[in-house]
Amino acid sequence: VVALLLIADPAQAAAWFSYEPYPTVLMIALLIAMCWHGKLGMQVIIEDYVHKPWCKTALLLVNTFVFSAAALMSVLAVLKLHIV
User: Fold this and answer.
1) How far apart are CA 50 and CA 40, in angstroms?
2) N or C terminus: which one in the chain shows less Cβ crowding within 10 Å?
C-alpha cells in the first residue's frame, strides 16, 4: 500500500489519508518505528566506533535530536494530509 503512494500524485495521497483514520494511524506508527530503528542503529554505530567520550556524547545527543525531529516532522506531515 505504501508503494502505491510513491507513484500517486499528492492529491491522491492526501485523499487516501483523509478518508478514514486507519491509514493515518498506521502510517504514523510506521514512521515512528522507522525513526526509532534508525536512531538505535546509529546509536550502536556511534557507541562502537567513536572512542572519545566527549565526542561520543555529542554525537549521541545529535543523533537523538535528528531522529526526534525527523519523526516529529513526518508525523506532522501525515496529520496535515489527514486534515486536508
Assistant:
1) 15
2) N
